[in-house]
Amino acid sequence: MTQAESTARQAEEPKDTVWSEHISVMDRIPRWVAMLGLFVVFVAIWQFVIAIGIVSPIILPSPAATLDELIFVGRNLITGDYMLVAFWVTTQEVLVGFAIAFVIGFSLGVLVGETKFGEKSVMPYLVAIDTMPKIAFAPLFVAWLGFGIASKVALAAFMATFPIVVATAAGLHAADQNSKMLFKTMGASRWQTLVKMKLPMGLPHLFTGLKIASVAVMAGAITAEFLGGGNGFGELIRVGASMLNTPRVFALIIYLSLLGFAVFWCISWLQRRLVFWHKGTIDEGALQKKGA
């Protein structure tokens, strides 16, 4: 190769061979700007649908009417009126139901994930029960436990248990063979292997199940109030819907979503503290950096 050919070849080669990630314009938008933009677009489409008369305001209230009801319900909650009592009843149903679901779901998940008996004998029954329409059990819970808070807690726990069972069992199976062989070589007992290796490695799966359960427990509590009456927010929604007061229904649903979001956020916060070595699908650190 001549000197001229060598010089031309070096000129054709890229000077910087380090790979650089290309970030699209959409991904560069700060998080709060993107969320605010989506909200504005959603409200604008909502108002447009009402303005041109595609949907009757009786069925779909306007954003302004919903905002008025949001203020009314919020004022009622702050002053400690009857809506605060109803909100506290629903909150108790959700929290107690979630706690019961965690205890039962975690215990059954360990049984299924740790023993052959649980995997071969118990799991088929759990799958069979999980495939049943759980809402259909609401009248049975009301007949067994009455119209009080107990029947609502029971249905909420019933609907939230199965995601925790599956997530716990999957988490116990997540340990790799090398780690199992290491603990076996070191003479660790079954209990030590479970507590010091399998449970820590299965925590990401468990928290995923808890997040799914936090949504299911809300659905269970509100469904039970629809079908079994009571004094919670679900009963207020049912009464509002029967009177065609759709702005009130929308406002109550939004406040209920805040309760569900609070439960979900608490679980996510615990996950970040306890499973700090595991990153989720969405890199929150990167999102915060972009949103800064």
* Fraction in helix: over 70%
Strand content: under 5%
Q: Please give the number of β-strands.
A: 0
The biggest beta sheet, please?
Answer: none
Query: Could you tell me the mean pLDDT?
Result: 85
Low-confidence stretches: 282-292
Backbone structural class: mainly alpha
Q: For the CA atoms, what is the radius of gyration? A: 26 Å
Q: Assign an overall shape.
A: globular
Helix and strand pattern: HHHHHHHHHHHH
Determine the N-to-C terminus distance.
53 Å
Count of DSSP-assigned helices: 12
Notes on the protein architecture:
The protein has 292 residues and is an all-alpha fold. Helix content is 76%, strand content 0%. It contains twelve helices and no strands. Helix 7 runs antiparallel to helix 9. The longest helix is centred in the C-terminal third of the chain and has 39 residues. The C terminus is likely disordered.
Which terms summarize this structure?
single chain; 292 residues; mainly alpha; 12 helices; 76% helix; 0% strand; disordered C terminus
